[in-house]
Amino acid sequence: MTPEDPDVVASAAAPGDEGPPLELVCRDRLLAKGRRQWLENSGCAARGSFTSGGFRLDQGGRVLIAQGSLVLGDEKGSGKDAAGLVGFLGSLCLELWAHGAEPVGLLDSLRVGGSSSAMMAAREPEQIRGELHAAAQSLGLGVFGGECGTSLQAFDTLFVVMVGVLPRVPRRDRAKRGGLGDRIYRVRLPEVSLAERPSNFLAVGQALREACQKDALSWVGTCRDGGLIAAVDWLETTGKGLKLEPRATARAALVDPEPETFLVAALGDMNPAGLLPDNVEVVEVGWIGEERLIDLEALEGSTLRLRPEEIRRDHQSPDFADADSGLESPLAAAEDYEKTLFELLPDFRMLSPRSAEGRESPHQGLPRLSGDVGLVRLGARRDLLALAVGSAQSFSSLDPYIGACLAVCRVTRALAASGAEALGLLVTLPGEKEPGADLVYEGLRNAADGLGTTVEMAIASEGAGAAPVVIALGRPSATRLVPSRFQRPGDFAVLLGRTREELSGSLYERHLCGVCPGTPPWVDLNAERRLQDMVRVAGEADLLQSALSLMSGGLIRGALEACGVDERAGQLLGLVGESDENIRPDAWLFAESPSRILVSVAPEDFSLLKERADRSQIQHRFLGEIGGDRLEIRGQLSVALESLRRAWHGSTDGDG
């Protein structure tokens, strides 16, 4: 046991034993959750649980976001069961309800611990996502989309972004948040059976919305990561101080996660107990102070005051491979690309989760997009919001700075391919204990600046490792959204962007030789921005029939999804594509170079697309004509689409 582990610190003090000092407990917890860096680095633009004002809808109201992470199946008890998932999602709903917003759906990112082989064992990711969908539906939520990938962590981790609609702007947004002397209360939901939990959350949530509409509450903070993190969120969000009494500063209350507990600030003499159901426990635990600090009065009579300027961290250089060792790994090419493709299909399937529909389908009348892009209609006027989620775990392990840049590029490029422009980014950061955390923060900021967007909101997660999960929120800018699937036989398939011989960190390399040291893909933020801008403008001009951003799995996985192989039913459109003789054949198929989008255009529009690409200094390559029942890359592979579809979805019958 080490004092640096906050969970060990919290449990180290047995009844009657003093245990480690309260200051050590608190500072260690802040370190694990990344709060030290946020409090002293205003450039990160992290503002607690919500953006300062949310995203305005065209016809009034706002979109609010809550996000969180859940470690599944760790030694403290399985969060993978239905009760744990319902409690986790319910706590996110409570954040939105407490701000007067109505939760409508979510986007998820599942990081599966262990190697790629563990990822395929017992179809575990599909089971987890099925349980997530069931928990979401019990709360009346839709699942708009998501992504799945591997992690170097020991346990699976689920990241969720929940979307809510605020129909009007609360008056407290135009006033100061709370007044000096306003009371702080701890609100805890009652313990009920699994069957009663969704209705319990819904009843409390409705009461919180009504309290918000009456302007009875000035602030709400979730204790999902412990009371201390809720208090620090208060400091970040309001800039005012917080005085907590001993009943709120017990070690367990400060450190232990309590997803069904939260802190609220009531205006004036208002007591929230009169606004909530009778079975909800409401206890007064503190009040608002003027000085910007957290004042913790301990049970033993001592007082600990945490000020942002006093919370510092000891800088440690990240322990990564020496720069001189970052040469491309000497990976021998596979002998049979068709065989390798079939062996990789289970990984492709896990990386391409399909969105699940809630009580009201968000996809009615909308095109089908890739699985990591979700669409939802919000508000009375049905404004359209697009969301994309992604990370770059395999590249973050090679270089955390480049991995963070690639994650930002992935999600913004996915939105651009669909015809949407990023409004802002939401990120799940690694805790400061993770090697290279500073490089991750720097990569996120620089990539966001280079692509013309901003980090609007951030949380820290102990299960994130060195790889941030990034979510981009966007608003469609085109007259129509651009689907990701090929649409018509006879159209031309074109690859926009440059493919390099970059195989380190790719699924292909991990399949052949496991995790190897190497150099991550080259990142050119200027080229990335030119590509995204050009594709969005081409979509607005109705020039593109389809567009799909290439990410994990490279060109071959993108071609499979564009042909419709990842759908269990529906039309399959083949492609006879050309190869690039100037690079290794396996790099052409499997390299994961960024800044690439696979598009299709009508033959009569091909010359115009080339002109636009040349004007934007974007490399382009004609792949071939769409049609037929096979996917063929000349000289490398030729496989029947029906055979690929059966193998993708787990059936092994049929021939190639």
How would you describe this structure to a colleague?
The protein has 19 helices and 24 strands. A hairpin with a 5-residue loop joins strand 11 (294-297) and strand 12 (303-306). The radius of gyration is 25 Å and the shape is elongated. The termini are far apart.
Helicity range:
25-40%
**Cα separation of the termini:** 55 Å
* Number of DSSP-assigned strands: 24
* Strands side by side in the biggest sheet: 7-9-6-10-8-11-12
Strand percentage lies at 15-25%
Low-confidence parts lasting 5 or more residues at pLDDT below 50? 1-17, 36-53, 75-80, 115-123, 171-176, 310-329, 355-363, 652-656
What characteristic shape results from the CA principal axes? elongated
* CATH top level class name of the domain at 173-301: Alpha Beta
Level-2 CATH architecture of the domain at 173-301:
Alpha-Beta Complex
Sheet having the most strands: 7 strands, mixed
Assigned CATH superfamily of the domain at 173-301: PurM-like C-terminal domain
Mean pLDDT: 75
Radius of gyration: 25 Å
Structural class: alpha+beta
Structure at a glance:
By secondary structure, the chain is of the alpha+beta class. Helix content is 31%, strand content 24%.
SSE diagram, text form:
Elements: H1 6-12, H2 22-32, H3 35-40, E1 55-56, E2 62-72, H4 82-98, E3 102-113, H5 116-120, H6 124-138, E4 142-151, E5 156-166, E6 183-188, H7 197-213, E7 217-222, H8 227-238, E8 241-244, H9 251-255, E9 261-266, E10 281-289, E11 294-297, E12 303-306, H10 337-351, E13 373-378, E14 383-390, H11 393-396, H12 400-418, E15 420-430, H13 437-450, E16 455-461, E17 469-476, E18 492-496, H14 507-513, H15 525-540, E19 546-549, H16 554-563, E20 575-577, H17 585-590, E21 597-601, H18 606-615, E22 620-625, E23 630-633, E24 637-640, H19 641-648
Parallel strand pairs: 3-4, 8-11, 15-16, 20-23
Antiparallel strand pairs: 1-2, 2-5, 3-5, 6-9, 6-10, 7-9, 8-10, 11-12, 13-14, 14-17, 15-17, 18-21, 18-22, 19-21, 23-24
